[in-house]
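Translate sequence into structure tokens.
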Amino acid sequence: MAEPLTIIGLASNIISFVDFGFKLVSGAKNVRDSLHGTTPEINELEQTLARVQRLSAQLQSEAVTEPQQLSQYEKDILGTVNECNALAKDIAKRTKNLKVRDNARFKLWEYGKVALSEIFDTKEIEDLRRRLDKVEQRLRFNICNALDG
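Result follows.
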């Protein structure tokens, strides 16, 4: 006769496996149904990144075209812009495997691969999202203060 703790452990493992399978299938379905070849979360991250990059590029070009004495807020903006560029490289590197390749031969396999990559990279993606949100908040704060001062 099997011990009760062994049976509970086995049932727990089966439930974990089934839950993981549901997450994988659900993620693959979300990727397949997506217009962008990725999950909505990754698409949102990429849109936020594009918005912050546009803002950063605009700020950098204005700092170059107007080389007068910069205020402390403007110096902080330029420092944040440099941080944004470094963060953009990190995000691009992380999200490279989280999109369906256009030339993929086996689309179903590709959907599953993207969903699996997102499941395993969830913590890193959330960390990048938080860092990007903080950079965007600092940029907006310094811009508002630079405009007021």
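Note: The chain has five helices and no strands.
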